Amino acid sequence: MFKESIAIALRALLTNKLRSVLTMLGIIIGVGAVIAMVSIGMGVREKVQSSIASLGSNMLIITPGAASSQGVRSASGSSTTLLLVDAEYIKKTVQGIDYVVPSVSKSYQIIAGNQNWTTSVQGITPEYMAIRSLNVGSGSFITQQHINSRNRVAVLGSTVAANLFGETNPVGQNIRINNTPYQVVGVLDSKGQSAMGQDQDDVVMIPLTTAQERLLGITYINSISVQVGQMEDMDQVQVQITSLLRQRHKITGDKEDDFTVRNLTSIMEMASETTETITLLLGSIAAISLLVGGIGIMNIMMVSVTERTREIGIRKALGATYNNIMLQFLIESIVIGILGGTGGIVLGIVAAYAISIFGSLSTVISLWSILLSFGFSVAVGLFFGIYPARKAALLDPIDALRFE
């Protein structure tokens, strides 16, 4: 009877092809929309996570607080309270740390021959390469010898190298920063854009001591990056650093810190929770169209019951039971859900790839979103088919045979 019910259901759908396709269209669009929307949400989450991860794993970023003058507070990070000795003391005192990297930065116009490019010039130490997971494409990176000697050398990001030198290898060439020549010793591999759309390759790196003493003429630093060995030690290390800097800067009692310690792991967790909420919201909105498709299935099944009233009467007169009739119409509604769900999967995957190729959004197609939306489409077909199937099964055979 089960196989026969499937055959009858398929025959009924093929008898009214256009009506069946239009009924399935609601399910197809619903499933496709769920898969496409969830893939967009997961693509956003992956992009945010990779962008934060590109800053380094298990990272703490220490920045100075806001400068104040006559009661007026400037922007965060404008203070000059962080010194190189602070970074050295953190590295020497705090346990569980792999790297401590102080840095300074300022925007300059870089000149090479008859080409120029305005970008950020960062003063860093050799450990910056490990903490930011950088790779040198050609040449070498800043060394401790460069730091000790305050050499005028530079490492270029791929964007700067391309704009100043084109296809030519810039290693060994000279560039001018603030009208002073610097020798290019290396070019970095591309890291792409950050989650905020910033080009991570649009940068020039020079030795920290050179930047402080020969370029900027300052004694303070703009930030300290700290890489913690184990993720479970992040909070403990953050507390130790905060306590140590308060002690060094002679901050007591309830006085406000003149620095900020940011935990990138916490930021990543917060970003993940936010993007998961967005993904759930997008999927939920798309799932509404599945409910609309389910109403369409109920509508068409009610029409089918009305059209086949005499057939039902004949089947019941020949001995078909309540369960036989119920099963027949349930299978018919489930088949609509299955075929619509299959078409929706194809539509959703194609839409996700199209958005990724032609749009500015990256998409990630997940197996669980496909299985969930397909299962939901089958469940919708089953749920919205129960009432019409029950109505058909409860028909009186004598009344059904008299129906015109």
Give an overview in words.
There is one protein chain. Helix 2 (17-53) runs antiparallel to helix 9 (264-307) and helix 2 (17-53) packs antiparallel against helix 12. By secondary structure, the protein is α+β, with helices and mostly antiparallel strands. The strands form two sheets. The chain has a six-stranded mixed beta barrel with strand order 4-5-10-7-9-8. It has a two-stranded antiparallel sheet with strand order 2-3. The chain is 56% helix and 18% strand. A hairpin with a 2-residue loop joins strand 8 and strand 9.
In a nutshell, what does this entry contain?
This protein is an alpha+beta fold and 404 residues long. 56% of the residues lie in helices and 18% in strands. It folds into two domains: 2-51 and 270-402, no CATH class; 80-257, no CATH class.
